[in-house]
Amino acid sequence: MSNDTTRSESSYQPPVPIEKPPLYSWPPKPTKALRWLLFEMYFPWGFLWIGLSIFTWHFLTPSVATMSTLSPGWIGFIWLRNAFLLCLLAGGLHWWFYIRRSQDKNFKFTERWLATDSRKFLWRNQVKDNIFWSLASGVTFWSIFESLTLWVWASGRIPSTTWSESPIYLAFMVSGGVIFWATIHFWIIHRALHWKPLYQVAHDRHHRNVNIGPWSGISFHPIEHTIYFTVFLIWWVVPVHPIVILASGFFNGLSPAVSHSGFDYLMIKKKWKLSTGDLFHQLHHRYFEVNYGNTPTPIDAIFKTWHDGTEEAQERLRHRRRANQKND
Predict the structure, then answer these.
(1) Residue 6: pLDDT above 80?
(2) Is 26 exposed, middle or buried (0-12, 13-18, 19+ CB in 10 A)?
(3) Which of 19, 76, 143, 299 is the most buried (most CB within 10 A)?
(4) What span, in angstroms and rounded, lies between the C-alpha atoms of 76 and 81?
(5) How far is the C-alpha of 68 from the C-alpha of 66, rounded, in Å?
(6) Which residue in 225, 309, 325, 318 sits closest to 12, CA to CA?
(7) Mean confidence (pLDDT) of the chain
(8) pLDDT, tens digit (0-9, with 9 covering 90-100), for 235-266
(9) Which residues does 253 contact at the CB level (< 8 Å), separation at least 6?
(10) Count of domains forming the chain
(11) Residue 244 domain boundaries
(12) Predicted confidence band of residue 296 (pLDDT cuts 50, 70, 90)
């Protein structure tokens, strides 16, 4: 059954229900699970983050000797590199979808375009506001946490391992460990950010973006950026190689630009579709009280906050809201 909320705001009807990954099916479905891993979780963006991490370690990261000592010079280089990559990705998606409007509203989750005259945003412009917070605060905290983690690794202050010592372990960590840890961490901190005091002081800045675009991905309050990028701290106790640390940064710093694109698919020559947006998270921006996490780790299903896009899920949300109002 189609989601009435999607129908009311967009002529495009995303396929529903949003199902939990076959990775968690019981009895196990190994063929479906493998297909999901390869063609839904990794292709194309997961493979991009992994490949980019390998390339960045070899060509766009200071030497181990340099990073063993904290210095504004190499930390500034990390900031410039991360800012460039975010501008390339978020800026490219924004240009394609919202400036060039290459596919008009085909596969767009909502009919509305981004706000250009709203008091909610700096300079009354949603895109300028989102770019400012993403770069001035987002890339800064991302780069600080990443640089500190690379420093404690390079200076031998934390446990580590090498590819020659642990190739299978590190291959698993860079491909699966990064994503599953990031999605578990995201649910935990995101649920905390919806605690009323934290929401009002910090998370509300992100949620002003009900209608989201690529630059909305890490457009947060600095307090939220501080909490969000604590995702790096696990690598202070779990031994890994810097490629894993870099992949963690790219997954948390770059992938939100894709999941917040506002479009389900990017069309290439009207023949091929590349998955971009995330209906699961799109519904969170619309309703706030559902889908706090991500689909790779379906914690929302355990806590009864999984909204699968159907009318049945919407009715459950209405019922929960009525019950909460009575309790208040």
Answers:
(1) no
(2) exposed
(3) 143
(4) 9
(5) 6
(6) 309
(7) 95
(8) 999 999 999 999 999 999 999 999 999 999 99
(9) 82, 85, 86, 138, 139, 142, 218
(10) 1
(11) 4-327
(12) very high
Give the pLDDT score at 193.
98
Instruction: Tell me whether the omega of the peptide bond preceding residue 44 falls within 30 degrees of 0, making it cis.
Output: yes
- The span from the CA of 40 to the CA of 34, in Å, is 10
d(CA 106, CA 134): 27
Residue 112: both structure tokens together: 């509305």
3-state secondary structure of 266: strand
Q: Measured at the alpha carbon of residue 317, what is the angle toward residues 311 and 320, in degrees to the nearest 5?
A: 145
**Bond prior to 27 in cis (omega within 30° of 0):** yes
* C-alpha–C-alpha distance, residues 134 and 30, integer Å: 39
Tell me the pLDDT band of 328, cut-offs 50, 70 and 90.
Answer: low
- The span from the CA of 78 to the CA of 227, in Å, is 20
The strand pair at 272-275 and 265-268 is best described as: antiparallel
User: How many helices and strands in the chain, by DSSP H and E?
Assistant: 17, 2
* Cα–Cα distance, 291 to 190 (Å, whole number): 10
